[in-house]
Amino acid sequence: NAGVTQTPKFRVLKTGQSMTLLCAQDMNHEYMYWYRQDPGMGLRLIHYSVGEGTTAKGEVPDGYNVSRLKKQNFLLGLESAAPSQTSVYFCASSSSGTSEKLFFGSGTQLSVL
Amino acid sequence: KQEVTQIPAALSVPEGENLVLNCSFTDSAIYNLQWFRQDPGKGLTSLLLIQSSQREQTSGRLNASLDKSSGRSTLYIAASQPGDSATYLCAVTGGGNKLTFGTGTQLKVEL
Q1: pLDDT digits over B45-83, tens only?
Q2: Is the CB of B104 less than 8 angstroms away from the CB of A42?
Q3: C-alpha closest to that of B26 among B70, B56, B89
Q4: Do B31 and A104 touch (CB under 8 A)?
């Protein structure tokens, strides 16, 4: 029962470095999401995908890019990391958008120095 | 812009107590409301999903109610246990299928 798996769990970057966060789900879900969670601000949507090969911007997309080449995978990229991107990143998936329950991964703690 | 508020931010209760967590939202035009549980260092687990046409949902010791017209939802936890200690978040789905989260209530159930 893997569900939604995120890698890595922790990462420290220097300003200007790049990295990719991987999200994989084994539930055959169409919808996948990337959120960031910051203290006192709740979860905010970065990007999402409604199916293989599609992506769309969320509430806070600047500085991030995403790709959904395979249905089960959703990648989040930071091209040039900034300290403001220090956060906990969560991936989620659902079968049919927000009308159904969302399933979350365990998160990636990212620190940008 | 939809805003979701959860008060209190933190709550400590003795084991066995029945308790209510509150969630309020500013725009009543929602499709559904979800309650999530988040354990430290972990992701969110969906507990209950209430569609806008429903008034409540129950799962075990949990009961969530929704009053869309007043912009309020409550999560009732019966006979609380130390294992219930976690942060509870609510989220509403509004226009454009946008999901807006509250900042959560951190619950501690003490022995």
Answers
A1: 999 999 999 999 999 999 999 999 999 999 999 999 999
A2: yes
A3: B70
A4: no
